[in-house]
Write a structure and sequence with these properties.
The complex is a heterodimer of chains A (46) and B (675).
Chain A: H1 2-19, H2 21-43
Chain B: H1 2-22, E1 28-29, H2 30-56, H3 66-69, H4 81-92, H5 96-104, H6 109-136, H7 143-150, H8 153-182, H9 186-209, H10 214-237, H11 242-245, H12 249-265, H13 272-297, E2 300-301, H14 321-329, H15 337-342, H16 355-379, H17 383-390, H18 393-396, H19 400-409, H20 416-425, H21 438-452, H22 459-493, H23 498-501, H24 506-529, H25 534-563, H26 571-593, H27 601-613, H28 622-662
Antiparallel strand pairs in B: 1-2
Helix pairs in contact in B: 1-2, 2-6, 2-16, 4-16, 5-14, 5-16, 6-14, 6-16, 6-25, 6-26, 7-8, 7-25, 8-12, 8-22, 8-24, 8-25, 8-28, 9-10, 9-13, 9-22, 10-22, 12-22, 12-24, 13-21, 13-22, 14-25, 14-26, 16-21, 19-20, 21-22, 22-24, 24-25, 25-26, 25-28, 26-28, 27-28
The chains are: A mainly alpha (46), B mainly alpha (675).
Chain lengths: 46, 675
């Protein structure tokens, strides 16, 4: 059972690395923040 | 007990290899190939990679990796071993191991199988592992930087030019494989085209509408892609929609060039990242499906162990078994391209030094397994069908009857009715001369998938799913490669103009993207108008370029090991290096000077010049023929340039080797900065 769980965790981590979903979410937030900052600057509020 | 397990694995592997090698005219189950491969990989990983890790590199977790030492939570990030493995495998898994073994199947299944298995264990995986460890101990430095520092500025400059030129050839040739896959197939073209707006919609959704909601975007993005596979059939059957997607090769090539340029210029979140992310699901899902299909169906291999085409008369591409089989297989056994990844993002991610063995050596074994599965897809097809799909019309004619006549004369039975039925079953108008490797891989995969699920009724769907998978696979390499090339070009342009060098500058972005896309677009277009079929001309050029880059990487690896504490282990990289230099220099020589015009670029140019002089070319074809003559001469020059670059790096390195061997007390280089 423990070995099965370890294998499932390894597969999940492998897919996480292969697909890069974490980076995509991170990038999406970063872009969103950058766009919001730019819009605020354009409005002259900061 | 543990020893007994390894003895059993060795015996099983030896038995499976014995079955494969001695099954002359008998049919043999593909399961034997999978067993042989898995046993060879297990033994290679358990013993050879452990030997390299312990003896040659002396990996030690007491050495702190750059991911910790230089951690910036952006490029340098300590990463879980499995995540790093997944990331590294995704980056190295290009379409090379899918297409190369399919093309090399014209020699029979045996040479390809043996080279993929032996080549990866003692060559390809060693290269990836060595460069990864080298970069890991040098703060994650790139291949070019390491060559400059370990060998010298001349070798470094030559390597930089070589890497850029090789990338252009690589992307151009891969683009050609997509063109050949989509030509005459509106179903495939419409499905692949649909992924672009879907990706853009996903990008906008994840950034503007529901920031960071990757799971939601994934769910509907994937559903739309799968729907587009089904809808492609309606497009193919619709009189109104079909003409929009049933395009000539030149138009498809121009569309791919336009896509590459757009993906490079647009913000990465809008098109490239979501499209590549979407592709990752299809890629890993399909590869897993193929492995499961092969295991469940265990189809018999119908291709002979060796064909008569080892003499160089092959219809798929010209040239003898040696050296052309080995440069054709390319990425399934060894790939220079991987050294760019092993000295790129991966060394900046490793949490512990010992993870380099699992990630560097292990991921390459997995890539090789993809190559074996691709080879199986070709080998389980009727050989007659394989040659009908992969031979150009100049050889087999344009009707099933003419193809059957020619192919039967080679000793491979081909029933025209069987070919016509298969063509109808997979929903195509023709399967004849669909060169490039992608369509035959799709037919093989559809054959395996449909036998596991759905039977003949779903064969068309599986075929187009496979074509979409291949096109997505290739376009991922094409768009990401173009963007990386753009950054390299901006690095170069930055020496002359600060604006052009800034990655945030629109002018710099557009100029560098145009230069890179123009470079590979030229080769792509050249392949499309090539009268011999672009694959015949350009795949060997791609193979030579890729393997020469591997030679450069192994030269660096040998230098690093020689300068290290245990120079005797430099033999581990020097051996595959010697083999690669022999293979690629021989192939390069043939591609330039061979008097057979199907092999030698210069012979082809001379032949066409003679035809022009004799007035044998129709007036409307004269301009195109002049272009083809120029292209053949250009390809000869490029091959010569690649060979010269490798000699420059090798000779520069030999100078360092001699100096190091004469002064054996030099500081150990592989031990790196932290030890």
């Amino acid at each position: 059972m423990r070995a099965l769980l370890a294998a499932a965790r390894a597969l999940r981590d492998f897919l996480r690395g292969f697909i890069g979903a974490t980076e995509l979410a991170h990038d999406a937030h970063a872009v969103r923040e950058a766009l919001a900052l730019r819009a605020e600057k354009r409005r002259g509020c900061c | 007990m543990r020893h007994l397990v390894w003895v059993l694995v060795s015996l099983l592997g030896a038995g499976a290899l014995g079955m494969i090698a001695t099954a002359n005219d008998e049919t043999i189950s593909s399961a034997w190939f999978l067993v042989a491969a898995l046993c060879v990989y297990a033994i290679g990983y358990r013993f050879y990679s452990a030997f390299l890790a312990a003896k040659a590199f002396a990996l030690d977790d007491a050495n702190i990796t750059p991911a910790h030492r230089l951690s910036d939570r952006r490029d340098y990030v300590p990463t879980n071993k499995w995540v790093a493995f997944g990331h590294h495998f995704a980056a190295i898994a290009g379409p090379g191991p899918l297409v190369g073994p399919i093309l090399a199947a014209q020699f029979g299944y045996l040479p390809g199988t043996l080279y993929i298995l032996i080549g990866v264990v003692i060559g390809g995986a060693v290269q990836d592992f060595t460069i990864l460890v080298g970069s890991l101990r040098r703060d994650g430095k790139s291949l070019g930087q390491m060559i400059r520092e370990e060998i010298g500025p001349v070798g470094g400059a030559a390597a930089l030019v070589g890497v850029l030129a090789i990338m252009l050839i690589l992307i151009g040739v891969l683009g050609l494989v997509v063109v050949n896959a989509m030509f005459g197939s509106p179903w495939a073209t419409s499905t692949v085209a649909a992924t672009i707006p879907i990706a853009i919609a996903m990008g906008i959704y994840m950034v503007r509408i529901r920031p960071g909601r990757v799971l939601e975007a994934t769910a509907w993005g994937l559903a739309l892609v799968l729907f587009s596979v089904v809808a492609g059939q309606w497009v193919g059957e619709s009189a109104a929609l079909r003409p929009w997607f049933d395009l000539p090769k030149q138009t498809i090539a121009l569309a791919i060039i336009a896509y590459g340029f757009t993906a490079s210029v647009l913000p990465v979140w809008l098109l490239l990242a979501p499209r590549d992310y979407l592709s990752a699901f299809i890629k890993i899902g399909t590869v897993a499906l193929l492995a499961a299909g092969l295991l469940i169906v265990q189809p018999d291999v119908k291709l002979p162990a060796l064909t008569q085409f080892i003499d160089g008369s092959g219809p798929v591409f010209s040239g003898k078994l040696f050296p052309f089989c080995f440069i054709t297989i390319a990425c399934g056994a060894m790939s220079g391209f991987h050294s760019l990844i092993s000295s790129g993002t991966t060394p900046k991610l490793l949490d512990k030094e010992t993870h380099a063995r699992f990630v560097g050596y292990g991921a390459m074994l997995m890539e090789s397994f993809v190559g074996i599965m691709a080879l199986m897809s070709a080998a389980v097809m009727e050989p007659g069908i394989y040659f009908a799909i992969n031979s150009p019309p100049a050889v087999i004619g344009t009707t099933p009857e003419s193809a059957a006549r020619v192919i039967s004369s080679w000793g491979f039975a081909l029933d025209p009715l069987h070919l016509t039925t298969l063509t109808q079953q997979i929903g195509e108008t023709t399967l004849l001369s669909r060169t490039g490797g992608a369509p035959s891989l799709a037919v093989g995969m559809a054959e395996i998938f449909s036998r596991a699920l759905g039977g003949d009724a779903l064969k068309a769907l599986w075929y187009h799913f496979a074509i979409m998978f291949e096109a997505l696979f290739i376009l991922t390499t094409l768009d990401a490669g173009t963007r990386v090339g753009r950054f390299m070009m901006q690095d170069l342009l930055g020496q002359f103009s600060k604006t052009l060098g800034r990655t945030t500058s629109l002018t710099g972005n557009v100029v560098a993207s145009a230069l890179i896309v123009g470079g590979w677009g030229y080769f792509l277009y050249q392949g499309v108008i090539d009268p011999l079929g672009g694959i015949n001309t350009l795949w060997p050029l791609f193979g030579i370029a890729n393997q020469l880059l591997a030679s450069i990487a192994l030269t660096l690896g040998t230098t690093i090991l020689l300068k290290g504490a245990r120079p005797v282990y430099a033999i581990c990289t020097a051996l595959p290096l010697t083999w690669l230099v022999t293979v690629t220099m021989t192939a390069g020589w043939h591609k330039i000077w061979n008097p057979d015009r199907r092999i030698g670029f210069l012979a082809q140019a001379e032949h066409l010049k003679g035809q022009l002089a004799a007035g044998a070319i129709a007036p409307e074809k004269i301009a195109e023929t002049n272009i083809v003559i120029f292209n053949a001469q250009l390809d000869a020059v490029i091959t010569g340039l690649f060979m010269a670059i490798v000699w420059i790096v090798l000779l520069d390195a030999a100078r360092v080797w001699l100096r190091t061997l004469r002064a054996p007390a030099a500081a150990p280089a592989l031990a790196g900065a932290q030890s």
